[in-house]
């Protein structure tokens, strides 16, 4: 039987914008979460792409991925749920170890 520490946990983040907040604050909150789960040993940090949704700051997924990857060191960062017709396949970066 596997131990809990052997399970590669991940996070899927929508980068929500809290009421009365800004997209910049949302990005900082996402980076804080990514750093926190990285310290806990999580394996991946996924960002979901959503367009035209009030309260979601992850429409420019590749920008947010770069921001999160630049602020972390070991966790894999990538896109979870990309609308491929809107992007060339190599536009969305993924950090590997």
Distance linking N and C termini: 26 Å
What structural class do helix, strand and pairing data support?
Answer: alpha/beta
Strand order, main sheet: write it out: 1-2-3
- Uncertain regions spanning at least 5 consecutive residues: none
Tell me the series of helices and strands, N- to C-terminal. EHEHE
Number of strands: 3
Largest sheet: 3 strands, parallel
What would the principal axes of the Cα set say about the shape?
Answer: globular
The average pLDDT score comes to: 84
Number of helices: 2
Fraction of residues in H or I helices: 25-40%
Tally of individual domains: 1
Describe, in plain words, how this protein is organized in 3D.
This protein has helices at residues 23-39, 61-70, and strands at 10-13, 44-47, 76-79. The chain is 28% helix and 12% strand.
Topology (elements, then pairings):
Layout: E1 10-13, H1 23-39, E2 44-47, H2 61-70, E3 76-79
Parallel strand pairs: 1-2, 2-3
Give me a quick take on this structure:
The chain is an alpha/beta fold and 97 residues long. The protein has helices spanning 23-39, 61-70, and strands spanning 10-13, 44-47, 76-79.
